[in-house]
Amino acid sequence: MTPLTVTLYPTVHVVQHTQDASIQPLCIGVCFSGTLLRHLVHSIVPIQISVSIAEEYSSFTTPVIESLALDGYPTSEGSISKNVCAQPSLLEPYNWHLDIPITFLPLPSNFNPTNSCHWSRLLEQIQCWLVNIPLESQHWMWGRNTFWFTFVATYPDFPSSTWSMWDTRIPLQGQFIEQWLEDGAASVLGVDHSHKGLLEQIWAEFCTHAMLFHPEPLFSVD
């Protein structure tokens, strides 16, 4: 079968007062026509997806793929770079039967993503939820990354300045927090280190990440 090739044009966000711009995430759906013979289906059905960017941009940015099944559960752990092959262990079925309510979503209608105090209240809710769900669930892996988005929005100077200690059952792991510890605000916003600009960018990434397990509106309706 000839591979299907599609050219897409994502939104480009220009960072104010800098020479930087960032490519915004794309949500792409893949449907499969027809049916399979049951005896051909094993525990997993692998597919290959390739993503590339024009050569003149490739030295500045790298596409990252996040997968999401139609039932609302990611099919692999976190993000996979286009240059990294997924290991078979990442594709094994998880506990599909687990129905874990996400108690901190939707957010209250008055939540202000440019106010670290609002993030602080959300941080407490996420931490309480996260340490009380099964470690083997994909909710936990998703929640761990959600926690670190919220933690940095609460303490934008982390690991410098002052910050409250988190529950040690939550490890310093995940693509976002590991890049933050290595590069600081530059990993999120380039050279724009303004408090408001940083929180706005974290909010944009938070929304994209939250959609993996909460495809409904993020704000509650009073």
Helices and strands in order:
Elements: E1 12-14, E2 21-23, E3 64-65, E4 80-81, H1 116-130, H2 138-154, H3 175-183, H4 186-189, H5 195-210
Antiparallel strand pairs: 1-2, 3-4
Structure description:
The chain is mainly α. Helix content is 27%, strand content 5%. The protein has a two-stranded antiparallel ribbon with strand order 1-2. β1 (12-14) and β2 (21-23) form a beta hairpin. α2 (138-154) runs antiparallel to α5 (195-210). It is globular and about 55 Å long.
The first-to-last residue Cα distance is 51 Å
Beta content comes to under 5%
The number of distinct β-strands equals 4
Order of strands in the sheet with the most strands? Answer: 1-2
Count of alpha/pi helices? 5
Describe the largest sheet: 2 strands, antiparallel
